[in-house]
Amino acid sequence: MVKDPKSWRLLRDFKKGKFCFLISVENWSIELQKSEFHSLYILLLRINEQLLGIKNELMDEESISLELEQLPWFIELEGKKNEWSLRFVFESQDQTRSFEMYWPIPIAQNLFYEIKNMWESMD
Q: How confident is residue 80, by pLDDT bands cut at 50, 70 and 90?
């Protein structure tokens, strides 16, 4: 488990069965299946690649907005080159559930790196 006691936590527990990943930010949390968590991880890597591709061309105070969609996720990054937030929309492919989540600055950067580390540590 990875946790910031004030604002977020990330938990992996395969004993829980189908919904074995928990993401909690401020006053809400969501449990994800392994396949959902993996697809989130892949999209986070892709949007980070987009950001890195333009980061050197941006001034520090310049605002950016990047969007990426790959079912079941839609991700929107907004902010500046060194501080940004993320908004997600999830629509399950079997239409059993949908949700939105928002990670504010600086939680977005922290959770991105922790999700990346968590997934890559499972290999």
A: very high
